[in-house]
Every structure is written in C-alpha cells, then in structure tokens.
Amino acid sequence: MRTPLMAGNWKMNKTVDEAVAMVNELKDLVADAEDVDVAICAPAVDLYAMNEVVGDTNIDLGAQNMYYKESGAYTAELSPSMIKSVGCKYAIIGHSERREIFGETDELLNLKLKTAFANDIVPILCIGEKLSEREAGTHFDRVKFQLAANLSGVEADDVKNMVLAYEPLWAIGTGKTATPEQAEEIIKFIRETVEEMYDADTAEAVRIQYGGSVKPHNVKEIMAQPNIDGALVGGASLEAESFSKIVKFK
Ligand SMILES: O=C[C@H](O)COP(=O)(O)O
C-alpha cells in the first residue's frame, strides 16, 4: 500500500519570516493528518529556519533543485550535502520550470537523480507534456521518453523509493486542471511504463503524484483515482489553510 505524499512547491515565494510564519501555522493544522506524508519544498534561503520549526512534526522539507556535484566552482548551485544539512529529505528534480525556463536537459536530470540516490535524498522527478503535445496526442510518447532518459541506469530499488510527479505543463498555474480521468489515464500509463522498464514490484511501489492546479475543492476527486499517490501543489500550498485542506483530503 502506497502512502500518499502531499508536497507543496513554493517556487520563488516567501521570505524567511514568511516561511517560518507559514510552517508554524501549518504544523498545527496538519498535526492530526493520518496516512499521508507531508512535505514543503521551499526556496533554499528559507530552509534553515524552517528546519528549526518543523523539528519532530509530521512535515518534511524538500529543496526545489539540487546540483549533481558535491562541491566546487558551480556558482549559485546547491550540493546534496548542503540541502541535507538544512533538513531536506526530498529534492524536486526536473520541474518543468527548470526544464523550460532554465534549459535543464534530460541528461543533466539523469545525473541529478543518480546523485540524489547516492546521497539518500528522495527525488521528486517531474515529467509531463506541453499543450501542443497533448493536442497532437503525443503525450504518452513524451512521458515515456522522459522516463527512459531520466531513469537511464537507475536501479529498481532506487525507483521503488522515489517519487514521480506527472505535471502537464498546460495545467500548471493556469487554474486548468487535468480531469481526474485524464490524470489517472496517463499516471496509469506511467506505472505500466515503469513495469516495462523494471518489474511489477517496482511499478507497484513507486509513488506517482499529480500536479497542476490542485486545490482544496478538486483534491478529493483526484485522490480517488487508484494510481494517484498524492499531489505536487504550487499556488494552493502558499497558504496554510488551503494546503492543510489538501493534506487532509479525506
Ligand atoms: O510544482 C507544482 C506545480 O507546478 C503545480 O503548480 P500549481 O499548483 O500552482 O498549478
């Protein structure tokens, strides 16, 4: 049985004071959440102070990005040990904004994934198609290609412990959610592709989230789908009240 993961991705939002205030509020609101994992992937500058607040609560922390080298002349990048030192359990790898705006390639993301596994960081690997690909009917090919390229050389045991996030680009920040049936159809396909690439046990174990305009009012029907194991939430994770409602979707 897979435990759902509700992860907030704050993107480039919240100063340290704002971040601390929000997790202080959130920790009380989600303290009684059962059978769900909770994470906030915050801007790097916020994580140290947030880590002091989340302590032994049920909120885990994640980074929004991570480089694949341990140290060196890589201005502005964050190493795995740096993000672990501020309490990160998770790291988002390959968010579409990193791919599209910052030109991150599938090869680079493959290196980042392998580095995450080597450092006991749970990667949340984002995959998903653009609107033009959905309209052309090539969205299945797109996610299959991303899985093959990003997971190249990755062992089954690592895949079992990672998180995949299916995020159609046309649903991110647009208020336009994939219907639960659309999300289930492609997430089921992603699980079947993992089975083809690895085996049935790996496909059964890997958690696959949906991301793209998940809100308190639509989370329940999304989570009712058998293959959807949580959500990667942008806008609605910025307010403690709305994110807590998503965490406590039942
Ligand atoms: O990482 C989160 C996704 O990009 C979804 O963002 P959104 O919930 O604001 O659409």
From TrEMBL:
Catalytic activity: D-glyceraldehyde 3-phosphate = dihydroxyacetone phosphate
Entry's EC annotation: 5.3.1.1
UniProt: substrate binding residues: 9-11, 173, 213, 234-235
GO-annotated molecular function: triose-phosphate isomerase activity
InterPro entries listed in its UniProt record: Aldolase_TIM, TIM_sf, TrioseP_Isoase_bac/euk, Triosephosphate_isomerase, Triosephosphate_isomerase_AS
Principal location class: cytoplasm
GO biological process: gluconeogenesis; glyceraldehyde-3-phosphate biosynthetic process; glycerol catabolic process; glycolytic process
Alphabetically ordered keywords of this record: Cytoplasm, Gluconeogenesis, Glycolysis, Isomerase
Pfam families named among the record's database cross-references: TIM
Enzyme class (EC, first level): isomerase
Pathway membership: Carbohydrate degradation; glycolysis; D-glyceraldehyde 3-phosphate from glycerone phosphate: step 1/1; Carbohydrate biosynthesis; gluconeogenesis
GO cellular component terms, A-Z: cytosol
Active site: 95 (electrophile), 167 (proton acceptor)
Location relative to the cell: Cytoplasm
Family statement: Belongs to the triosephosphate isomerase family.
HAMAP family: TIM_B
PANTHER family, alphabetized: TRIOSEPHOSPHATE ISOMERASE
Subunit structure: Homodimer.
Function: Involved in the gluconeogenesis. Catalyzes stereospecifically the conversion of dihydroxyacetone phosphate (DHAP) to D-glyceraldehyde-3-phosphate (G3P).
Protein name as it appears in the record: Triosephosphate isomerase
Name of the coding gene: tpiA
